[in-house]
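Recap from last week: sequence in, structure out.
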Amino acid sequence: MYLTAEELPKFLDLFTKEYSAFNTIILTLLHTGMRSGECLGLQWEDIDFEQRKIHIRHNLTDVGGNHFLTTPKTATSVRDLYMSDKLMALLKKHKYEQRKLQLAMGSEFKHPEMVFTSSTGNYKDRSCLNTSLKRFLKGTEFEYLTLHKLRHTNATLLLNNGSVLKIISAHLGHSDIQITASTYTTVLDSSRKKTTELMEQILSEQTPNKHQQLGIG
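Predicted structure tokens:
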């Protein structure tokens, strides 16, 4: 299950009315299709505003309540993503607000190098973030959404709007294009059907009308 293009405006309205670190994380996940661990493992040195790139080099791992950064398990998970204007503005605003918090807390802010942290600067816990999302969406039509389904939404919207499977596979950091193909079989089947219908429409427009076919007029 994922957000459809029709549902998207209403969903976005829930997270764009005001700034919060939580809202910024959710919108970053939706914009990029990153895994939640990749998003929470971002450091500010990974955000290149000049080149408009996000360098994905780490994954935030939780083992027994202890958090630490690990290298992504596959080579293709280490990748660069381009930032849109809206995502750049979101992250710049977040950096500004986080900097104010750091100045207020001083050395008590634990991890100033991290993009997303708890209010005290600790690593952001993925399960707590997912719980916060479920709580936030309770009572809305989007209760089914999880952090990972935001990733599926990103990929599905790209596929439905004509992006090439190979590009999307690299965008998601899949180790093999077949993983992408098998994960999004239903979406791909729908896209193939649309392609067939589009071809029929194109050919129909080029076919002479019935009178011309019969040599009349």
